[in-house]
Amino acid sequence: MKFFQCATFALVGFLLVSCWQSHAQSLQVTVLDSKQKPIEFAVIYINEVLPKISDNSIVIDQVDKEFIPYVTVVQRGSAINFPNNDDIRHQVYSFSKSKQFELPLYSGDPSAPVVFNKSGVVAMACNIHDWMKAYVFVVDTNKFSISNKAGKAVLTDLAKGQYEVVVWHPKSNEGDQLNTQQVEINEYTKKLVFTVRQKTQFKAWRSPKSVKRRGY
User: Fold this and answer.
1) Residue 200 lies in domain
2) Cα–Cα distance between 214 and 216 in angstroms, integer?
């Protein structure tokens, strides 16, 4: 009798998962600039609060005196590790409203990851190397992605319904105003296109020779 009960429960579970998978939808988002050229590193997410999915493997590395990756999106409450894989020391910091922190001059791995517990943009830099910049975008949802070099990203496992899709990029000319679109997700909804007006950003001049002489 117990065997048949276990088999029944297993069958019900399989059917529920299969039903969800058959109804879950994917949305492909393309992000372009005002000249219709693709934009990389755009954050795309669903504007809704969803349960936290724990992930302790998020890393922003420091390689060849650059942050890798340039843009990271995480769910609120996530912890990020900041290893330094250069043979010199870095000092990572942020004065952003969403997260203020500082990792004093160090090599290797810091003693603990940094927890990002407030939604919004976190702009980071290195206090030693002026050209080193990176961004963390903290959201309340677990439905997010980042555009690739072709300006494309995919949001997966979306149930049918009405959603607000949001796009953010470090070079957006919209200021604090986010680029949003309303979309009805169904079996016919497959693609969405955003246009982001960009502002000019100037990057600090990188001088490897002078950095080497300073010994950092």
Assistant:
1) 41-214
2) 6
CATH code of residue 111: 2.60.40.420
How far is it, in rounded angstroms, from Cα 34 to Cα 181?
17
Q: Is 114 exposed, middle or buried (0-12, 13-18, 19+ CB in 10 A)?
A: buried
pLDDT tens per residue, range 118-160:
999 999 999 999 999 999 999 999 999 999 999 999 999 999 9
- Cβ distance 29 to 167 under 8 Å? yes
Which pair of structure tokens corresponds to residue 117?
């517990």
Residues 6+ away with beta carbon under 8 Å from 158: 24, 25, 26, 27, 46, 143, 185
Answer whether 145's CB lies under 8 Å from 44's CB: yes
Instruction: Read off the pLDDT band of 210 (50, 70, 90).
Output: very low
Q: Indicate the number of domains in the chain.
A: 1
Query: Which residue, among 215, 168, 177, 175, has the nearest Cα to 196 in the 3D structure?
Result: 168
